Amino acid sequence: MTSAVRVATDGWVVAKRNLIKIKRVPEILVFVLLSPIMFVLLFAYVFGGAIDPGGGVNYREFLIGGIFAQTVVFGATFTGAGLAEDMQKGIIDRFRSLPMSRSAVLVGRTASDIVYNVLSLIIMALTGLLVGWRIRESALEALGAFLLLIVFAYAISWVMGYVGLLVPSVEVINNASFIVIMPLTFVSNAFVPLESFPPGLQKFVEWNPVSSLTQAVRELFGNTSDAVPVPDVWSMQNPVLYTLLWVVLILVVFVPLSIRQYRLSTMR
Predict the structure, then answer these.
(1) What are 69-107's pLDDT values in tens digits?
(2) Which of 49, 115, 135, 171 is deepest in the core (most CB within 10 A)?
(3) How many domains does the chain fold into?
């Protein structure tokens, strides 16, 4: 059996183990699905009347792309928290004693978290439709938007996996993730128009990958308006390509880093 096939096979076993955990601890899934519903309803009904994206764009349609982006980024933290929990409970030590590929634990963990993100996206889409969001482009473009969200979340999950191996404590990984991800998602065009930021912050927002992901999703769903011109910045003019470049960069850097850190962690 080639190494790639072995990693895929062992990774699937680990992923299945993580998914079976949902049956034993259904509360995990409940909170995963309640969070996006809460954010959609909170922003749609509490802030919707106070924020005007301009150009006649309905704020609820403007909002959903940002909520999608925020939720998949936050959802990636499950990878780090899951690995930290396994380290604490000694489950990683049990994996070491098995004849399995070392990278399979990371492959399985990140793969199983795709399922959480897919479920979150489905719940968000249904909630969005209930509050007035609509897809105004073709089904193929809408599918492309969902795939882009999942791919970006998968890349971020490798970052969180690396952090989870560096800081093997669920409490610390949750706090560290919040400190990093919260400003990354809120200092973006996810919830307010880019023009509303002070000039100094606008440059950061324009090149923030969460902003490009949000812009790409809005365009693919048809939730934009010609009356609101896109900033004359390459990242915003080519949001899909810019987001995919970030995905490739993150995977190229953090996949080998995470595998190396996993090997170091299991040697302690």
Answers:
(1) 988 888 888 777 777 777 777 666 676 666 667 677 788
(2) 135
(3) 1
Domain enclosing residue 76, as ranges: 3-266
The Cα angle at residue 190 between residues 146 and 155, in degrees rounded to 5: 50
Q: For the chain, what percent of residues have pLDDT higher than 70?
A: 79
Tokens standing for 213?
């992901």
**HEC secondary structure over the chain:** CCHHHHHHHHHHHHHHHHHHHHHHCHHHHHHHHHHHHHHHHHHHHHHCCCCCCCCCCCHHHHHHHHHHHHHHHHHCHHHHHHHHHHHHHCHHHHHHCCCCCCCHHHHHHHHHHHHHHHHHHHHHHHHHHHHCCCCCCCHHHHHHHHHHHHHHHHHHHHHHHHHHHHCCCHHHHHHHHHHHHHHHHHCCCCCCCHHHCCHHHHHHHHHCHHHHHHHHHHHHHCCCCCCCCCCCCHHHHCHHHHHHHHHHHHHHHHHHHHHHHHHHHHCC
Q: How far, in Å, are 3, 77, 103, 117, 172 from residue 27 at the CA level?
A: 36, 17, 28, 16, 21
Tokens of 125: 């889409």
**Distant-in-sequence, close-in-space partners of 200: CB < 8 Å, separation ≥ 6:** none
Give residue-wise pLDDT tens across range 131-185. 888 888 899 999 999 999 999 999 999 998 888 888 767 777 777 777 878 888 8
Tell me the pTM: 0.88
Place of tokens 């924020």: 51
Amino acid letter for position 144 = G
Q: What is the pLDDT of residue 1?
A: 46
